[in-house]
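Shift notes (night). Ran Tip attachment protein J domain-containing protein while the centrifuge was going.
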Amino acid sequence: MLLGNDLLGGAPLGSLPGAAAEPVVVGGPNAIVWASRVIVSGVNWSSRITGEVTVDAEEGAARVAQFALCLPAGPVLPLEWRRREVTIDYIDNLGESRLFTGRIVDPVWNRTDRTLTCTCSDQLQEEVEALPIDEVDDLTDGLWSEDVFEPVEGRSHWDYAQERMSTRTASLDCDAYGAPRVTSWYAKSSPDFVFGDGATIYDTVVVGFSEDKRETNRVLIEGDYRFSRLRQLNKPYHWQHPETEGMGGEGGFCAWFLDSTELPTVDMILDAVTDSGQQLLSGATWYRTLPSGIWCDPPVGWNNNFNDQLLGFSLVAARRWAQPVTEKYTLDVRADASIAAAGELVQRDSVAIDIESELAERWEATAFGVNTAAPAVGGSSNGIPRPGYQGSATPGRPADDGVSGHTDVRDEARRQAGLRVLLHQAVATIIGDHRGTTANWDAPAGWVHGIDLSHTARVDDQGVRAQGKVQRLQWRLDHGGGGALCSVTVALMRGGGDVSDPLTPPAFSVEPQPEPPPPDPIADNLPTQIGGRGEVYDDELDGFSGSWSVGDGVSEGFPRRFQLTADEVPAEQRDELVVPIEGVYRVAIPNDLLELS
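Came back to this:
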């Protein structure tokens, strides 16, 4: 056919007749010739692959893959393919990369076209479930508390691993070879992969923005830590008969003997201590009357048939009680920059820690002091020391006196563990909610050999500049269409702030020990009332009551007794004590690179 004087098709349009055109060379060094390698239970089935091979790897989830095999003639039992080991590799003239290691979990047979579609998983959950607890601890490196979570024994190791991971700003998943690992949520300062101009498939770069209503920026933690404060109150008691005129030994005895009275006995004193709700501590001193003999000046004869009558004594008695204490923690974990920009979105959490103690349960009921003395020669049947008994609480061991003051029955490791778990969970919640913005793009699979979820990627193409930690990877190897693509998704932290406080629980409450009262024998001397010479009896008065040996013959004597009254325990030392403790923890959230043009 002629167009003008030229033969149509005989030369390129617009060229001069007879001139040879230079051809456009397609391909070159950037050309990629690729293939996939699919191994099932050690057998290479690559030549039987039909359609598309897909692999999907995402943070915190099992890696999944799918492919279809065109099986040769012969019988097929799909269930026999279940649980078979699978590896998938991407291979091209630039290199090769392992994309998947796992097992077939769902084989589906299509008898029409004789294809077996295999859905595979790296079985992350099963891999972790099979690990011993100590290996789960090493793998996750997270925190755990028996007061926040359920006991470990008899429970799923996968659930246990998830509990530990809830305190990490990181994800647990498997690498391309099926090995469990933990990857941080934070992007590196320098990217592992850079997608510059022309490195992404046209019109595939997409930015997805997080919803503000999902971005928790404040977590309020309420914690109750309950324990027992074991208290002991020691009180000294001193009594000396006023007729001794303050003298001891023979002098005091002779002064009393000039005008004698009834006297208390050691048993009366011990009974008075017990009746007051107290227990006798070791170290008591007894001022007994002199034994039979000739005493005083002028000399007088004295016949003493009792060796436990007292002209005085000094002792220390004590009482014990347990006070419940509750430390109420209010911990505020907050991202101030996010709050200022978008307002508060609050989440709440709580923990209750009860420290149980056998010591606290028996603190008030268990005898102590010298009242714990075992029966012995010279001792009473109930263990209370009697005249002549000088033994200790247990032979060869000091008496259990204790000290005046208090002791807190704490478990600091449990307190630290419970509060630290909640603090780290709060930070993980805030950080996790502020990485909901994502950037996604497609690139030729041959250009991303070795890319993994542990990497940081940067894109600067098609009007988007962004850098973040890889959150998801999706490979699509299309044997029918010839395309081999990898879809890359990075998570972008957005929040701001430049101060992050250490996640250290506040210090526990401390009550100072009481100062011991200075000894004052005169002020502490118990009263004495002697009747039979017209005196008035006061039945409520502590101390000794008795009668004169020789009365006026008219007045009645007083009952012979010894009485002690223990100091009343203040309500603030017996009733439950609630101690408020507060703490504020600031969280800074990096602003990963994100610019749109």
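Residues 81 and 107 are 7 Å apart (CA to CA). Residues 131-183 form one domain.
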